[in-house]
Amino acid sequence: EIVLTQSPGTLSLSPGERATLSCRASQSVSSTYLAWYQQKPGQAPRLLIYGASSRATGIPDRFSGSGSGTDFTLTISRLEPEDFAVYYCQQYGFSPPGYTFGQGTKLEIK
Amino acid sequence: EVELVESGGGLVKPGGSLRLSCAASGFTFSNAWMIWVRQAPGKGLEWVGRIKSKADGGTTDYAAPVKGRFTISRDDSKTTLYLQMNSLKTEDTAVYYCATLGYAMDYWGQGTLVTVSS
Question: How many A-B residue pairs are in contact by the CB < 8 A criterion?
């Protein structure tokens, strides 16, 4: 089973700064099935990025995804107050079929 | 607009059963693959199981912790997804979300809380 490890666990930044969140897989994963989600307290997760680098519908262009193989990155170019939340990466594996989430990175206001 | 509304959560004793529903609208439900994801209090996300569209075989897959105890089904005529949960354990306590499934989990419901406690 593929394990996704996100770092850092908590990231403290100020509005206007750049955020870089990492997701590392225990073995190579298909970029097609690598996604990022944002979750705010008391809310359902929201899809941000799919296919490692494609923004979901309605997601601002300050969010971008990159990476391949075992190393993936979510970048938020200039933080807005509404961006402070928990972020999860997620991958799909074919054999056996299953979905894995990272443990999450909490992005908090410094 | 895509809308997913879960219902059926509540308090149940260990060993008991519960059926969750996810009412879907705003898209062609019969063509959609669907997934259940849960989140224990204060914890991260964990997939529970998925169901393919009938056109793609309608088959199901489950995460190891729930395999043999949980069953996912769908009623395309009612545009509703179900999660039948049997032999519930305290560790099944979580908010349960349904979501549409493409290359990722595109749209999510608001979740329904299941508490397993004596």
Answer: 58
Cβ neighbours of B37 in A, within 8 Å: 45, 99
Task: Determine whether the interchain pair A99/B97 forms a contact, defined as Cβ–Cβ distance below 8 Å.
Answer: no
Is the pLDDT at B83 greater than 90, yes or no? yes
Q: What is the pLDDT of residues A89-99, one digit of tens each?
A: 999 988 788 99
N- to C-terminal Cα separation, chain A: 36
Residues in chain A predicted with pLDDT less than 50, given as ranges, are none
CA neighbor of B108 nearest in space, from B18, B30, B24, B40: B24
DSSP B1-61: --EEEEE--EEE-TT--EEEEEEEESS-GGG-EEEEEEE-TTS-EEEEEEE--GGGT--EE
CA distances from A49 to A57, A60, B29, B66, B71 (A): 9, 11, 23, 28, 29
Nearest-Cα distance to chain A for B108, in Å, is: 7
